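Same chain as my last thread, 299 residues:
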Amino acid sequence: MAGKTGTPLDTNGDGVPDYRQLHCNDANCDVCSAADTCTTCKSGHLLNNGACTLLCNDANCDTCSAADTCTTCNAGYILDTSNDGTTTSATINNGACKLICNDANCDICSAANTCTTCKTGYEVDANGACAFMDSDSDGIPDLVECPTLPNNCVDTDNDNTPDYRDDDSDGDGIPDIVEKGNDGNNPTDTDNDNMPDYRDDDSDGDGIPDIVEKGNDGNNPVDTDNDETPDYRDDDSDGDGISDIVEKGNDGNNPIDTDNDNTPDYRDDDSDGDGISDSIEKGSGDDIPVDTDNDDTPD
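reply #2:
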């Protein structure tokens, strides 16, 4: 050890002996011009307004608690705390900084207005923006069909294909793109039973399954009375004033055809083939048509 007759100590090797060097209050400072003003920081630290801060490995980090763990990002960047499981964000999720994206549904962007990785349920479109993902192209966003995407998703028809991947979710032969109506974000629920038509096997609640009422072409379901409401959504398919739930009989899978003309009564405006239309014979009531001779067979 150097003493009074030896070489003075120079701990940091800067050529200035310790006894002539100013003591710095910042423990991470190597040389200071004043006790609270550092001029040279120790290795692994960065000089910032006369103080020493930890040198962060992330170039977009302003301050960090460890070299690889950022606590405050530079302007235009934000700490990545999404932890949403996407490959990109998962690799930088340990207190790192990511660019602030203008699109609220974007997880990672290469520029503020150009997304590269969207949040779950969204996908990057041609313009670098995030659009609703629609895996089965039925016009109903995946997040509508499965809000907890990709887990615990409904499979209405139990065909081992969840609804968000199934273009006919209820298996009634009418594609979801037809049953959804005009707004895939708010699919049609004809009978207001809190079950949208694309998941409801009897959309109008008349007791006749949609698979029966649709006819032969689910893409163009039958509209018997040409009122622009297809039979599977129409509670009076033939427009005779007698509701389908009455005309169908006891078995909606095999609706009554009184005159055996291969047109079931709910689609036949003259169910008994007597030349008098049902709208006349029914009388004034829908649910209880006239039975003149009281033989339990309506006129």
